From TrEMBL:
Protein's name according to its UniProt entry: Gfo/Idh/MocA family oxidoreductase
GO MF annotation terms: nucleotide binding
InterPro entries, alphabetized: Gfo/Idh/MocA-like_OxRdtase_N (IPR000683), GFO_IDH_MocA-like_dom (IPR055170), NAD(P)-bd_dom_sf (IPR036291)
GFO/IDH/MocA-like oxidoreductase domain ranges (all copies): 138-247
Organism: Cohnella pontilimi
Ranges of residues in domain Gfo/Idh/MocA-like oxidoreductase N-terminal: 2-119
Recorded superkingdom: Bacteria
Amino acid sequence: MIRFGVVGTNWITDQFIESARKVSDFSLSAVYSRTEERAAEFAAKHGVSRTFTDLGTMADSGEIDAVYIASPNSLHAEQSILFMNKGIHVLCEKPAASNAGQFRQMVEAAASNHVLLMEALKSTFLPNFVAIEQNLHKLGKVRRYFASYCQYSSRYDAYKQGNLPNAFNPQFSNGALMDLGIYCIYPMVALFGVPDEVKATGVMLDSGVDGEGSILLKYADMEAVVLYSKITESSLPSEIQGENGSMIIHKISQPQKVEIRMRDGTVEDITQPQDPLTMRYEVEEFIRLIQSGRLESGVNTHARSLAALEIMDEARRQMGLVFPAD
């Protein structure tokens, strides 16, 4: 069994625990929150007796082998390094850091402490993403990757009423690019590598984060177009266009239906059976890596996580989106 601690007590951690408990070697051993009351409440909800309000104490406790970090983006690097320096494996929510420089420090800490560090970007582990990779050759020469993730934030109404929820607070390295854009960028890097050029634009909010944006990315013989938003809603699918046909991907953040439409009019549904608790697949990978003594995923590699952050760093530079963590 791999004994996990969790940092963060929001809905994503609930979803993580529910998904992870479908993996046989997962054990939830400890919960961290800034307040004892919240830690106790969350721990009771999930049947855990051990709680912490101090990360150092949790890291030194000897009660966890690995930690899932789902705190605000601005805290990811610092908290991950703290745990890795104590020999604890880290599964860190996306984006893994506020910027590429921070992630390089995380990779160095992982290497020096001989522990596993993996970004918890779930979509690349899903059966339907594997189907995308395995069937991509059918499109012939790929000329365009188009990915769209525009989802009106439930917290935007509060923001418009004069409040400042974390989702729109630059103090926490948040905003549309970091929250949603990464779901378009990471699969692009996984499928096609690092682009040669990045051109970005976005709509900045008064709080100092981006509400929505668009990025055009140039490769040697293809281009990519990425759209993302937390202030509008869209039902557009994503698409990979090749010279022989196109691949339609419904919900790029966790592909649910994938079909190939050829130029001759034939359609092939390549959708695979997939657990609705989609985070289970990244947990399976993470635990398998620990048990096999591996220190890096072959799917969510350090290079891919770094490349995605470098693209977002450049997009933010062009948009004038600066975080205190920078």
